[in-house]
Amino acid sequence: MRPAALAFLALAMSTDAFAAALGKGAGSARPKFVEALRTGLLFGTIEGITPVIGWGLGLAAARMISQWDHWIAFILLLGLGARMVCAGLRRDSDTQTDSTRQSLGMLMLTALATSIDALVIGISLAFVDVNIALAALAIGITTAIMVTMGMMLGHVLGSVIGQRAEIIGGVLLMALGGAILYEHLYAPIPLQALL
Questions:
Q1: Domain tally for the chain?
Q2: What secondary structure does DSSP assign to the chain, as a single string?
């Protein structure tokens, strides 16, 4: 996977976590940097682990589903992207709650909820020639940075771009699913060559 494609993938994977962090930041009066960094590291760690889990699941199932892998990736990414877009369109900025001191358990649940896309991407990466450790590290670091920034900027920008970030992330995931399906059905050039 080329560095530009890896950076694009990592950025796309961090958009829903960034949107969640903007919402959390918007719900608090002024988050402290230490709290934002702790939240960023938690989200980044979980977001970095889940693609490896998905990659392992994809490799285990590769023999059984190799004829349908492109359809599975397309449906998963399309559904996940549509869910992100719908969530971004539904979310009202006035429903945010004060999150200045959230429990570790609630933060972990939120991080797991936003890392479902990374799990799906991990499954998709099992069918592409990619260094999963490097991809997972890039996704984890990018998410940690984006969540930390989102928490700090949330009280200023959360209501303005929080929903749009999640919508953009959903559209990117749907486009990725469409590209995978197109490559398997119509494109003579393998997707790996583009990545």
A1: 1
A2: --HHHHHHHHHHHHHHHHHHHHHHHHHSSS--HHHHHHHHHHHHHHHHHHHHHHHHHHHHHHHHHTTTHHHHHHHHHHHHHHHHHHHHHH--GGG----TT--HHHHHHHHHHHTHHHHHHHHHHTTS---HHHHHHHHHHHHHHHHHHHHHHHHHHHHHHHHHHHHHHHHHHHHHHHHHHHHHHT-SS-HHHH-
